Amino acid sequence: MKTLIVYAHPEPRSLNGSLKDLAVATLEAAGHEVRVSDLYAMNWKAAVDAADFGEHATSPLRVIPSSGAAFDAGTLTADVRAEQEKLLWADTVIFQFPMWWYTMPAILKGWVDRVFSFHFGYGVGVHDETHYGDRFGEGTLHGRRAILSVTVGGPESHYTDRGINGPIEDLLFPIHHGILYYPGLDVLPPFVLYGTDRITDGEFEDAAKRWTERLLSLETATPIAFRRQNFGDYEIPSLRLKEGLELPGRHGFGLHVRER
Asked: How far apart are CA 74 and CA 151, in angstroms?
């Protein structure tokens, strides 16, 4: 297995840093190839601007056509092209980050904004009466797997159906479904550590054991059963789930997960 770890934390000695290091050591010991994109160490440029597209930048700047034209010409900036090449190389992608303000750190969102460019991460495939582009289960990254390894400061009870922050599945849905599944990645259930602001050595040992077990099962774990866009579940072009396909009691984001 070839694994890319996209790591977003400014402190190498952090819990996230330890989990990233454990992933590298565990996977390499099991005979897998590993590459790491350490975004803070790379001084990753998070903001999209005209400089990303060079001579293909429109004036005034329109990011989508500029991005697509630069991708098609092979002239996106070297840092972006390198990350796209890593994604195409990988069988599995691990995203290691702390949850800040209910989502990923800005530097990681900026990685997505720039690397998942038009004609690479989106805007691929044909659009007609029965097919609305290659996305949500199809696309450039189809056939690869992804998993989020997320640290959360608050206790697990805060991230449940009746918890004040809402279910963790709902908070991660925009990342799981809208960022990872959209360009075709199969998304594995996340590895989430709660109460990390006060984690003890003993709790870390337990967490490390559980993370190791998850790492060694990445090739065989069952992905989240998101519905594929172009395979009959959705009306096209409205992309509304067809009546009668919802599971009993399912609503909101849960409508887009099918029963196996």
From this structure: 36
Crossing angle of the two packed helices 15-29 and 201-215, in degrees rounded to 10: 40
- Cis amide leading into 60 (omega within 30): yes
- Rounded alpha-carbon distances, angstroms, from residue 147 to 44, 48, 129: 21, 25, 33
Q: Which domains are assigned to the chain?
A: 2-129+139-223 (3.40.50.360)
Query: Hey, what are 158's tokens?
Result: 């805060």
For residue 187, what are the CA distances in angstroms to 33, 143, 255?
20, 11, 16
H/E run at residue 36: strand 33-38
pLDDT digits (tens, 9 = 90+) for 215-246: 999 999 999 999 999 999 999 999 999 998 98
> What's the pLDDT tens digit per position in 34-78?
999 999 999 999 999 999 999 999 999 999 999 999 999 999 999
Through-space distance between the first and last CA atoms of the chain, rounded to whole angstroms: 26
